[in-house]
Specification:
The structure is a homodimer of 257-residue chains.
Chain A: E1 4-10, H1 12-15, H2 18-30, E2 34-39, H3 42-51, E3 58-59, E4 62-63, H4 67-91, E5 96-99, E6 107-111, E7 123-128, H5 130-137, E8 142-145, E9 148-150, E10 156-158, H6 161-172, E11 177-184, E12 202-203, H7 205-213, H8 221-233, E13 238-243, E14 253-255
Helix pairs in contact in A: 3-4, 6-8
Amino acid sequence: MKEKLTVIKVGGKIVEETETLNRLLCDFSALPGYKVLVHGGGRSATRIASQLGIESKMVNGRRITDAETLKVVTMVYGGLVNKSIVAGLQAKGINAIGLTGADMDIIRSVKRPVKDIDYGFVGDVERVDAEALASLVRRNVVPVLAPLTHDGKGNILNTNADTIAGETAKALAAIFDVTLVYCFEKKGVLSDENNDDSVIPVLTPDLFREYVTKGIIKEGMIPKLENSFSAIDAGVTEVIITSASAIREKAGTVIKK
Amino acid sequence: MKEKLTVIKVGGKIVEETETLNRLLCDFSALPGYKVLVHGGGRSATRIASQLGIESKMVNGRRITDAETLKVVTMVYGGLVNKSIVAGLQAKGINAIGLTGADMDIIRSVKRPVKDIDYGFVGDVERVDAEALASLVRRNVVPVLAPLTHDGKGNILNTNADTIAGETAKALAAIFDVTLVYCFEKKGVLSDENNDDSVIPVLTPDLFREYVTKGIIKEGMIPKLENSFSAIDAGVTEVIITSASAIREKAGTVIKK
């Protein structure tokens, strides 16, 4: 039987504010078993880019990453946000290690081809080295992954944190019994966006299509759920969508085959 | 007999310019045996701090690290500079991993007590976890150390790169046959500061004292050499002071007992 491992993805909003970050560090530290944390940091990147006089351009919620913006996200995601989390986890007795995809060649990506939109220095994940991650995890080292990958040619590439979490969970599923947890602001996927308690407890592909058709699930939630089903199809045992404050209970919406 | 390991420290000037960085990456990649790279990044930190409207205050060549400056150095050293080097080494087939002292709890430090000067969030190294570094090195992973440590209480601390190189070399000397190489702008320690070819080939403690008394060795070179002798006393096999472009030949000034 495979050993259990949890991949938790938290958005920028949670890791960028002291209070929510501290709460997350406590909850994450208390989680039993092997674990991997994947974080965002978009708000800090936007703020620091702005302070440096660099305009943040977004298309469909995705950042256009020109050369100057790449420097900012490398600094903010790989340095400021990542190392704050790592130092914070160390203080809780968790032997964390901060990694971008370039470190130990963990995540190799390819620069997104230009079609309708030129996203710039954005990477689409090609492969995750699950064995390298497993070698750390088995020594009770906890990887903390920044949303940055590399192309193997010397270039860092900006990469969506949800995608990193999904691809990492899929790769690790070959070795571990993986639960993937996506944290966001709500307690789960809601059936009524005006009612925070209307959490849909379970989503199957059939239910998902039904909710999309009815317009109950929409916008940013659709790619998140598509990622989730793709992870399940690739061997991830379960995907949970919930709020960061509920990761210990694993409440929220459970995505099943 | 212990296996050989080389710790190379390069200053900010070398890693912050594309041309000298590329040359360094080539030379460092070609070095045989186990190796660790330690880098600075002060010039980039000063530049980005300035762009963010933060004044860089230096005392005796050391940066005063207030809370805002700490964020900048965490971004620049831990993110921008470190990850550029790591991605660059990966492109040369070197399986690099970028680390601050917080990552894997590699280097624990204590915030420098305030005496005459309050250096702010600056760490004095307490201990280096040589076993954790060795576990990476033995898997042919090459640690790339940023000049940042942590206090175990959740705080990142700014730490002099020369000190990190020295303390890391000392700790690794318990396990490996360690050569420590300090790279700077000159080919070695000069007996005539106006003649770049006047490299002193060998320095012993007696010769060092003689040169200091005569005023031939002065200023910033004195703490660098004191660090070097302290490393030798602590079991490092040899210390070499040279230019980054000479690391393959190991030319320069050799520090001996």
